[in-house]
User: Fold this.
Amino acid sequence: MDQFAAMATFVRVVEAGSLSAAARSLPSSLTSVSRQLSALERHFGTQLVARSTRRLALTEQGRLLYDRAKAILAELKQVELALSAGSEVPSGRLRVSAPTLIGRLLIAPMVPEFLRRYPSVSVDLQLVDRAVNLIEEDIHIALHVGHLPDSQLTTRKLADIRMVVCAAPSYLQRRGVPQTPEDLGRHDCLVFSDAPGAGLWRFRTPASAECKIPIAAKLWINSLDALMLVAQDGAGLVRVPFWQVRHQLEEGRLQRILREHEPQPAPLHLLFGSSPFAAPKTRIFADFLVAQWRASDPFGARG
Assistant:
């Protein structure tokens, strides 16, 4: 058991008033919080918190530990602050998580330059199309597309991701151009998904409300790259991130449709730990990523 981590969790439980509230604020899982609290009670050989279905109450021993733990953790933060002032050179292993397409096409090509600039850092780049738990999965920094969950993580907005519907000119000449989202039911749609089924594409109505259109796909593929290539061959309509197809649109290989019905862009954020003493490697990687993307404008913010 990591006693410092367990004491920090115990303090958060007391201040949040419940295990579930503490889990949300850390952020961590309810199981992890409960396990750490039980381990702390076993370590000290006494009950620290009296649990009921409605509330938590500190025992006399719990009150004693809470007061001392707060003082110990405050002192530890001061020590960390003093030590970090003399260790600004980035070093060590940096674990980064990103969505597969963004990671492969936009982050991986920048990593060699980052490693040349900071030779004492090694990078572990994890490409996954799901939300990650930074604490439980030992991730230092993650890219997240979409609105953020309520958490204590530090966030830094990078860009807005626009989703567009497009098709090859040859397909549109053959089948016609849809004028409304409802017209998609009469077209061949190519859908990105890990599992075939009923797809939903989001659009904006004339009143600016969001609507979801069921899509009976002609083809399902779990790769956006492959989906885009099939669309360029005239197989049907595809819904993909604008940044992925911006050059194909500029060159006329694909044509953007239903533009006035496109939903609001989804934000892209960097997430990292809430501690003000974030490791230099994390802060420097975040600064490097922002600087590189400002220069190259990969998401078409200026277009």
